[in-house]
Amino acid sequence: MAIRSVLPVVLLLAGCSAGATSTETTPGGTAAPTGGEVVTVVRVLDGDSLVVQGSQGDREVRLLGINAPEGTECYGDLARDKLEQLVGDEVTLVAAGEDTDRFGRLLRYVDAAGMDVNLEMIAGGHAVVVQGEHPRNDEYVAVADVASSSQIGLWSSNVCGSAVAPGSVDIVGYVYNPPGRDEEDLNGEWVAFRNDENEPVAMGGWILRDESTQNRYRFPDGFVLRSGREVRVNSGCGEDTQDVLHWCSDFPVWSNGGDTVILQDLDGTVVLHDRFSGQF
Description:
The chain is mainly beta. Helix content is 11%, strand content 34%. It has helices at residues 76-87, 117-123, 137-149; strands at 2-4, 23-25, 31-33, 37-46, 49-54, 57-63, 66-67, 90-94, 106-112, 115-116, 128-129, 170-177, 190-194, 201-202, 207-209, 216-218, 224-225, 230-234, 244-246, 258-264, 270-277. The strands form 6 sheets. A 5-stranded mixed β-sheet has the order 1-12-13-18-19, with no helix packed on it. It has a 5-stranded mixed β-barrel with strand order 4-5-6-9-8. Strands 16-15-20-21 form a 4-stranded antiparallel β-sheet, with no helix packed on it. Residues 6-33 have low confidence and may be disordered.
């Protein structure tokens, strides 16, 4: 079981791919392309995907190791504009690990004029890192930590609305890998928050999410975290109380290999976040 305590006091709330492609690792840890497929950029769809034209016609590409906000989400349009600026008219696709995602999109590093576009999107705070088993993961994670701690891009405290009061809500602990099969104990997986301020915090409509695109929990309308109180969000189903809420997900939310807990307010501004590393 993996229990993470974020504050000093431990919280116990409940007990080969397309084309000829290869990579080699440089001394700095980055997988430098030793091959790849040069393609023409047809259009940019959003901050982490684009359509390209190559020897096999038009194909959709998902940038490996990153996740940018959707077009309708806070910072979505800015992320898309930045990717469009970085890729230009021609890029090199470099494969590593899985060839496609569950939607059939090519998973690739995208290099433009010798620049790692995936890395640049993370470094500028235009996308969230998605931890995984690929050669550039460690570098992406390190750069992501700098971007988030520097509060740039989507990590800015006022990017999509008024600045959020610092420290209004804290993550005080979470369990991302309960004993046994995660699928059989969804409520054994949870994230806990506490309000240490003197005033209550209205959290109705706030979003709790991970690094992926699909996992989103919306706090119930009218939910208020009172001063000095804690609330735990379980991944499974159950009856909500003032102290325990339920995501009611059909599957485990938090990746055992590593993930990021992200809390956003009504405007989509990141209120707080905490990244953890695990084992795939």
